[in-house]
From TrEMBL:
This is Hydrolase. Residues 13-165 form the Isochorismatase-like domain. Pfam families: Isochorismatase (PF00857). Signal peptide: none annotated.
Length: 209
């Protein structure tokens, strides 16, 4: 029997955006905050292009953390965050039921902070039988060390670690898939650094005979 993890498909996963709020982003020290925000926007755009259900959570939005960061909310205007008190969204009935209601058993997670709200939800969902994938470069921790240790703990528990660009390319897989081609390519050009610059260049400058 093969132990290979099957590749992601748009029909089998849901995206969880956990506490993508400025009040928490202030405390991120594991990576450049602007890069992290850019990666998180790319994740949200990817889910939207591939019609992956998105469940967003916020906490303490009125007293400290603020609403979902505007750059993320802007690309998914129809997604309304579920407010909760518990650091662990999986221990909040409304939050957990919203995830279950998507009907998807494979969960992609992006959020803040890695050491708490991200890892608590990921570990609890995994324990309940969900196939959990954490998008490491779209999560932020308080320090590089604590972020890395949280990722390592989740990986040891059987959670798959990935990156936003791998999620996008895995969902697309074939550039002849025309329904998502323009959307996926636009995300790459906007958010994937040199790779995106190269795609834009090839479109504008290389003209096959």
């Amino acid at each position: 029997m093969s132990n290979t993890i099957s590749l992601l498909t748009p029909a089998d996963c849901a995206l969880l955006l956990i506490d993508q709020q400025a009040g928490l982003a202030f405390g991120v020290g594991s990576s450049d905050r602007q890069v992290l925000l850019d990666n998180s926007v790319a994740v949200a755009r990817t889910a939207d292009v591939f019609k992956v259900p998105i469940v967003a959570f916020t906490s303490a939005s009125k007293v400290y953390s603020g609403p979902m960061m505007p750059a993320i909310q802007h690309v998914i205007p129809n997604v309304k965050s579920i407010e909760r008190r518990n650091m662990n969204a999986w221990e909040d009935d409304a939050s957990r039921q919203a995830v279950i209601a998507t009907g998807r058993k494979r969960l992609l997670i992006s959020g803040l902070l890695t050491e708490a709200c991200v890892s608590f939800c990921a570990l609890s969902a995994k324990a309940d039988g969900f196939d959990v994938w954490v998008i490491g470069d779209a999560c932020g921790g308080l320090t590089p060390t604590s972020h890395d240790l949280a990722l390592r703990r989740m990986e040891a528990a059987g959670i798959t670690l990935t990156s936003w660009i791998q999620v996008l390319l895995e969902l697309q897989r074939d550039w002849t898939r025309h329904d998502t081609y323009d959307g996926a390519r636009g995300i790459v050009e906007s958010h994937a650094g040199g790779y995106g610059i190269g795609l834009a260049y090839s479109r504008d400058m290389i003209h096959p005979t």
